[in-house]
Fold these 2 entries.
Entry 1:
Amino acid sequence: MTSCPLSRLFFCGSLLVALVGSTPVSPSWHLKRDPPLAARDDPLGGIAALPPDSISQPGMLSSNLTVISDAIASHQAGRPEVVSAYKSIFEAVKPASTPTTIQDILAIMEDEYTGSTSSLIDSAASLYLHGLDPGNVKVSLAKRGGIDIDSTDNSNPEPPTTIYPQSSSADPSYSILEKALRSAIYIPSAFEFGRGSKQTVILVPGTAVPGGTTYKGNFAKLLSSTTWADPLWLNIPGFSLGDIQANAEYVAYAIHYISAITGGRNVSVITWSQGSLDTQWGLKYWPSTRGLVSDHIAVSGDYHGTKLAYTLCPGFPLNMLLGCTPSILQQTYDSNLIRKLRSSGGDSAYIPTTTIYSGTDEIVQPQSGSGASSFLNDARTVGVSNNQVQVVCGPGSLAGGFYGHAGVLIHPLAWELTVDALQHPGPGQVSRLNVPNVCRTPAANGLTAGDVLLTEAMTVTGALNALAYSPRVDSEPAFKPYVT
Ligand SMILES: *[C@@H]1O[C@H](CO)[C@@H](O)[C@H](O)[C@H]1NC(C)=O
Ligand SMILES: *[C@@H]1O[C@H](CO)[C@@H](O)[C@H](O)[C@H]1NC(C)=O
């Protein structure tokens, strides 16, 4: 099993060099100051002034992107220049018309990532050029976000019981104000607050995209259309690009809060990407949450971090001065945070857990075999099922081919295993499914090409959010006092 796909060797290679050659990372935040440009011509000057809609050919896009990567590699551009050059490129790109079938969208993803060594932002520009338009690309980087379903400022009722600063003396006190923790929970108007018989499902986002946008074209839509599930979601401030320990507080609080406002019932949690880490961290260090969660379904999770983490921070660590974001550094393979999480049984589930992931994930690798980053052990025998979509579906089936990091959200097996998990005790089991039937369609039944586009175009939104995130850091945040 290769842990680093050939297509990404450049980035894995630079990561390995960085890991081998590095001294232990000091547990402090280093705020990045933007380095002054030397007294010379700005090598990105031309790119900062591209006319709008002037790039409609892949060749022209890639030669412009090469100018940026060359300037980064030769340390000739600082962060402000790099950010404005990328922004200028997105403004100059004239996207092709939107693909209209699910298979066309999946084919664009596969073409982009097969054999690619690009950073995520370069791939995002290319996907955008090919018509994967999330709709708000031309909005100024500083003003992005702000749509209702992605709000971090929701007004939710007081809980009927005291859950702050802690629900149990076994838990640490939250370090984040209760108002912020509660306002990050988005409760749709259809939510029944435990009055009916529906199961409550909390949807937790991953790195760089809020919960509303993440789940609109997949689990939020599919769950709302059932008679038995009642979904809501979290919009973690800073698009989950800040400290994972803080992001985990949002999850731990939401579990208690939602249980409290639904009459003390259990919840289930569906997570994408980093959401799996936030949730596992919350379950580990806030033990009182464990008795309240019936099921955890982890889609494209990265319990081991990823060898491709740096593709989300263009130029880093080749040029350390460009900095990265806290949660991306915490998701490098075997980071300090990952090693801490996995220690003392944290690499095993605390509650019944169903993991679903793709071997062709362009962001999280490795993602196959028992070394898959999504793979969770079961030392406490609470029930775990680990499911790689290509292994379950098989190479001959429509759903057994290329699926990227976001693509697993629309995968038919992800949905059918979720239904199975939520409707049975313990995790979802492939043995209860009609696998050939499930794997016969490229996306879950009930999803349209528009839903798939919305989901896959998150790559573009996420890359732009990660690019804009500030303040940049060059090492992981310190551990909180409760972490032992
Ligand atoms: C960058 O794109 C512009 C179109 O805006 C094009 O005129 C120019 O030749 C491109 N530059 C490079 C280096 O390809
Ligand atoms: C709530 O979840 C816990 C942990 O998964 C489980 O042990 C318990 O049986 C669940 N309770 C109900 C009523 O489903």
Note: The longest strand covers residues 293-299.
Entry 2:
Amino acid sequence: MTGPQALPNILEITPYKGGEKLVDAHKLSSNENPLGCSPAAQAAVIEAAKHMELYPDGSAAALRDAIGAKYGIDAARIVCGSGSDEIFQLLGRAYLRPGDNIVQSQHGFLVYRLVAQQAGAETRSAPEKDLTSDVDAMLELVDEKTKMVFLANPNNPTGSYISYSEVKRLHEGLPENVLLVLDGAYAEYVRNNDYSAGMELAGEQANVLMTRTFSKIHGLAALRLGWAYGPESVIDALHRTRGPFNVSAVAQAAGIAALNDDAFQAKSADHNAAELVRVRDAVEKAGFKTYPSVGNFVLIEFPEAAGRTSAEADAFLRGRGVVIRNVNVYGLPTCLRASIGTSAQNDDLIAAIEAFAKS
Ligand SMILES: *Cc1c(COP(=O)(O)O)cnc(C)c1O
């Protein structure tokens, strides 16, 4: 007898693999905040733990109000999720069916493809220029079956971004029925004047949704918390699609506290800005190419020569207790992605790469 059979499109999915954790190693493989999280968020979690018998507020009203107040946006047009990951899943359920397609950039974040696969939809990936999203190439892939265009800006794992004027050009080139999803997971780290996460566009346009996460600058990846802001109709569809209590009370409380801790966010962003430059410079000095990054990680390219490859570098670094991320699944087999760690972790990463260069 054969047991229950999952749908063919589900069985085609390669499950997402998170960054590996090794005992006694520096985990620089998941772009987590090396400074931890806001002490105020920790205190809020302890407080919230006193009443875990109670169901959370399913609408996450206090958290949405806090987000609305912080960014000056309408709380009624925000939906919260169990990570921004869940927001993407909800989008797939609400907008995709078999035969549809989504458009993304060649080295776009892996989760978009998983969402499409779950719905039996096709993923169309547009070639990039210098590992940067190419608006014209993306627009070229849009057809009458396209339901959503996903843009991680900045993108993971490349670390690159496109300017706000380019984002607007992407939006202008899309039919009104195609939803542009702007994933701003790393928005808080970007200091370039021509960048915007797209809050304004999501506020004004009927087909733009911006997603954000508490997993990166807020250091709350363990709690699973993200949110989206956009047009009423899209937010309404996401509310209808989500589970009634999709965000835990503990996560909601921590999120509010984290959001209000500007000092922790500034400290995290400052640390990242300084250490990113230091790591990049040192890796380049050791003889390896790095790509410009505005995120909290850097993509390092290795030669294809024996003894110098990314796979050998990966193994060498692991041997020295430094775990960074293999990005084969992103179509970048010659590269590894290193998250920016604490200063001490970065010292060890740099020392390991220098030793590899001399090995
Ligand atoms: C880390 C990351 C996220 C955040 O995912 P969560 O589910 O909120 O933890 C979203 N998008 C990109 C591109 C990321 O790298």
Note: The two ends are 56 Å apart (CA to CA).
